[in-house]
Specification:
By secondary structure, this protein is an alpha/beta fold. The protein is built from 14 helices and 15 strands. It has 2 domains: about 160 residues, Aspartate Aminotransferase, domain 1 (Alpha-Beta Complex), CATH 3.90.1150; about 250 residues, 3-Layer(aba) Sandwich (Aspartate Aminotransferase, domain 2), CATH 3.40.640.
């Protein structure tokens, strides 16, 4: 750690002080020989597990052929093959095309470029509590200020933000379902008071918010949002960087909410731990930029492409989306008991294996328990479980375990998390559920 602090910028953060030596499946080993169960998954990048054998084999085969030519100079079949697979797998029964890039933020930037080019409109609508990346346009559509945006101003213009369907902390102080999805319908009001609908190129949304705290809206939110976008000829961009590839209990979270975006952004678990991302969308939209308008030196690296093809095969063959649902059920059975036991657990939410606990100091006030969340996370890694926090208030424990985790490993990890909640929740009487 002394070497890290002397050589590496402080802005490059890490959630634990644990330095990894090797990883396999859902278990990591640190440089001191300690084994830890991984509920973070490289921030959701290894749905198929650390060093999935099929992925490693695909990478090795490609290493024997070539490492890099740049698709912009000498194209290769794996880029085309992966684009074909993504065109087929992503939601929507229409002709599609795909652009491959290096990261989720880069994919977000390109999706907005394409939307503006196609619609000839400048504005983008996004949501409170959203996270879309750390490059400049991605920061502009990201909500959380610290640490992501503060000090980096100014950001690109023509970006407008409206409240999301965060039912636990409704911006309008309403309750679902009596609210009749006011947050979604309010977008029409924003077109009258904030930005003209005819100026909006796209709405970008995470089907389930990742860094925002795994906020999971009612499905009706997307029914209304899609209707509004269609009415005003606004493109709908789904950011599935964290929700995609089986995590939410389907290949893509859009499928769980039954809506079809015009473009879908993917990354993270697409390639099993290698840098790769994609924008997939309606063919006529994707072809709006002219030749040379899109691309990059390392975009669609051949090693990452081969890894991604192996990942997709593995997800389909092993039905990892169904496994995600089983893991989610296993978690919720335990988590709902924790919620009845400790007032600290304000809400349990998520879909599939994309599950979270929002921690509060009081159920009545819903005051965020940010310091207690840090204590839970620290207890976990000190007792052999890697977790990461999330949420605009830093008070959410999110689960991103590999979908190949065994039942025994899952239960052991949940035992540690339960012990952490007991350690923090029972240490302060105010955080325990009071008897009636």
């Amino acid at each position: 750690m002394r070497r890290r602090n002397a050589a590496v910028v402080q802005g490059a953060f890490h959630a634990t002080p644990v330095f990894v030596a090797k990883a396999e499946g859902a278990v990591v080993e640190d440089v001191d020989g300690n084994s830890l169960i991984d509920f973070a998954g490289g921030i959701g990048c290894v749905n198929t597990g650390h060093r999935a054998p099929d992925v490693v084999d695909a990478v090795r085969r490609q290493l024997d052929r070539f490492l890099h030519t740049s698709f912009n100079v000498l194209p290769y079949e794996s880029y085309v093959h992966l684009a074909e697979r993504l065109n087929m797998l992503t939601p929507g029964r229409f002709a599609k095309k795909t652009l491959l890039v290096n990261s989720g933020a880069e994919a977000v930037e390109n999706a907005i470029k394409i939307a503006r080019c196609y619609t000839k409109r400048p504005a983008v609508l996004c949501f409170e509590d959203a996270f879309h990346g750390r490059t400049y346009m991605a920061m502009a559509v990201t909500s959380k200020t610290h640490p992501y945006k503060a000090g980096f101003e100014p950001f690109p213009g023509d970006v407008y933000r409206v409240p999301f369907a965060y039912c636990f902390r409704c911006s309008y102080k309403l309750e679902y379902p009596g609210c009749q999805m006011h947050c979604a319908r309010h977008i029409e009001d924003a077109f009258k008071r904030v930005v003209a609908a005819e100026s909006v190129a796209a709405v970008i949304v995470e089907p389930i918010m990742g860094e925002g705290g795994f906020i999971t809206p009612p499905a009706e939110f997307y029914t209304i949002l899609a209707e509004i976008c269609h009415k005003h000829r606004i493109l709908l961009i789904a950011d599935e960087v964290q929700t995609g590839f089986g995590r939410a209990g389907a290949m893509f979270a859009c499928d769980r909410f039954s809506f079809t975006p015009d473009m879908i952004v993917t990354a993270k678990s697409l390639s099993g731990g290698l840098p790769l991302a994609a924008v997939t969308g309606r063919a006529e939209i994707m072809d709006a930029p002219g030749v040379g308008g899109l691309g990059g030196t390392f975009s669609g690296n051949p090693v990452a492409c081969e890894a991604a093809l192996a990942v997709i095969d593995m997800i389909q063959r092993d039905n990892l989306a169904a496994r995600a649902n089983a893991l989610g059920d296993r978690f919720r059975e335990r988590a709902e008991q924790w919620q009845s036991r400790w007032e600290l657990v304000g809400e349990v939410r998520g879909l599939g294996a994309m599950q979270a606990l929002e921690l509060v100091r009081s159920r009545e006030t819903r005051q965020p328990a940010d310091e207690e969340t840090k204590q839970v996370s620290q207890y976990c890694y000190e007792h052999g479980l890697v977790t990461i926090t999330a949420g605009s208030y830093g008070n959410v424990i999110r689960l991103l375990m590999p979908l190949v985790i065994t039942d025994e490993q899952m239960d052991e990890g949940l035992d540690v998390l339960e012990a952490a909640l007991a350690h923090v929740g029972e240490r302060k009487g105010a955080l325990a559920v009071q008897p009636a």
